[in-house]
Write a structure and sequence with these properties.
3 domains; five-stranded mixed beta sheet
């Protein structure tokens, strides 16, 4: 026999089964319902969190974070937060100096900005910052030691920040303009770790940027009205050979300025201009090579690449500001490009043109002819033609031996500079001294 429950006779079944105990069951059920309802309601001691009003614990955590950040900035500037230090306070039209502990100093209401002077400058590298694209980028440069205390718009707590100068990359040499050009990145660094949040300043920071007489900075005055990113860019052009290039940054608190240095890209320059050379190995030309923009005084090995001709020597060791020389000898005919290269430096190149050596051939023949005519006497008139032909050939051969092969054919020193009269003179002497030249070449001289 089965028992069927339905909701209409539930209480009847309970009465049949429990009888007199039913009032107690009803009381228990009612008490459980009341307890369950009360547990879901806020008590008098438990408040509902309001995002617009931070709790005392949240306020305390924020204060601790600010204190930690402030002390970290002070300590990296070699400033003890607990010790009294001179603090320069900028008010309207004047700068006052007070001695207070740097860690708990509060900017007065009538003050715009204050500065605690720390180290002059130091190299700085952070672990990176998160960009808007969620990329982690390194942040490095030269950190100016002074710690600024300023006010951000809409915030009651003071901001502590430093001026970071990022030299970005070495200045590049512009061949067309014949000058170096590059950029400085300047930002007011509140904290070098994590996400750099822009905060607008009530009182912007004024900077003056200058360099040498041959340099131009654009802009030369910079007004920065926010901390952290974005970085403010300053373009620098320079025509001098000074490397690294010193840049002076002045502030109202540092009228004498603080110096940072910008490296220059090392540049190899082929100083000898493009020109024509007698081809087919006839002419050799000294080529001047210089190195500029080198930040260190260490030696740099320069090597050469050419599509025609030969270079002697094939490498050259230079230091910054030095000029060396190699010799380029023609080979064949046509355009020849000589390129000078070194690791970590911009290469230099120049194009020469190797032309057919008409001048060389013509003046070597003239010199041989003159030599033959002088050596002919009256008793050899019947052999004049043969002597002249021999002189032409001899003069040409001697010129080739002397200029092309570089043989020392004479006991006295002659210049190897190739020009019309030099070729004529060598071929002329070659005819006159041919017997002695033959003996010298055969080892008998």
């Amino acid at each position: 026999m089965s028992t069927h429950f339905d909701k209409n006779n539930l209480w009847l079944a309970l009465e049949a089964g429990y009888g007199a105990k039913l009032p107690q069951v009803r009381g228990c059920i009612l008490a459980a319902a009341i307890l369950l309802l009360c547990s879901g309601m806020p008590s008098a001691q438990t408040a509902i969190p309001d995002p617009s009003h931070p709790s005392p614990q949240q306020v305390q955590d924020t204060a601790i974070t600010r204190k930690y950040t402030r002390e970290k900035i002070l300590r990296r500037a070699d400033i003890n937060p607990e010790q009294p230090v001179p603090i320069e306070v900028q008010r309207a039209g004047r700068i006052d100096i007070v001695n207070r502990p740097a860690g708990n100093y509060t900017l007065p209401q009538d003050a715009k900005t204050a500065v605690i002077k720390g180290m002059a400058t130091r190299e700085f590298t952070s672990g990176g910052y998160v960009t808007e694209n969620k990329e982690n980028k390194p942040l490095k440069g030269v950190l100016m030691g002074d710690v600024y205390i300023g006010k951000a718009i809409g915030e009651s707590k003071p901001l502590h920040f430093q001026i970071l100068v990022d030299t970005l990359s070495p200045m590049n040499f512009n061949q067309d303009l014949q000058l170096y050009e590059g950029h400085l990145g300047i930002l007011l660094l509140e904290d070098g770790e994590g996400k750099l949040v822009l905060k607008k300043l009530e009182d912007p920071v004024m900077l003056e940027i200058s360099s040498g007489n041959q340099s131009v900075t654009d802009p030369s005055q910079l007004l920065i009205d926010h901390t952290n990113l974005p970085t403010m860019m300053v373009r620098i052009t320079d025509k001098s050979e000074t490397s690294p290039l010193p840049v002076l940054i002045r502030t109202p608190f540092r009228p004498e300025g603080l110096r940072v240095s910008v490296n220059k890209e090392p540049v190899i320059t082929v100083e000898t201009p493009p020109q024509k050379l007698e081809g087919l190995g006839v002419e050799a030309l000294p080529v001047r090579i210089s190195l500029s923009g080198q930040a260190t005084s260490g030696p740099v090995v320069v090597f050469f690449v050419q599509n025609k001709g030969t270079v002697t020597p094939d490498t050259l060791t230079l230091r910054a500001g030095q000029t060396g020389s190699v010799t380029l000898r023609s080979k064949g005919l046509g355009n020849a490009t000589l390129t000078a290269r070194a690791d970590g430096a911009r290469e230099g190149s120049v194009t020469f043109r190797f032309v057919f050596p008409w001048m060389f051939i013509l003046f070597s023949l003239i010199g041989g002819l003159l030599g033959a005519l002088i050596t002919t006497n009256k008793n050899q008139k019947d052999r004049t033609g043969r002597i002249i032909l021999t002189g032409l050939i001899t003069g040409f051969i001697v010129a080739v031996l002397y200029y092309v092969l570089g043989l020392e054919l004479f006991r006295f020193e002659l210049s190897k500079t190739l020009n019309e009269f030099a070729v004529l003179g060598v071929s002329f002497l070659g005819v006159l001294l041919w017997d002695k030249i033959k003996a010298l070449l055969s080892g008998e001289g």
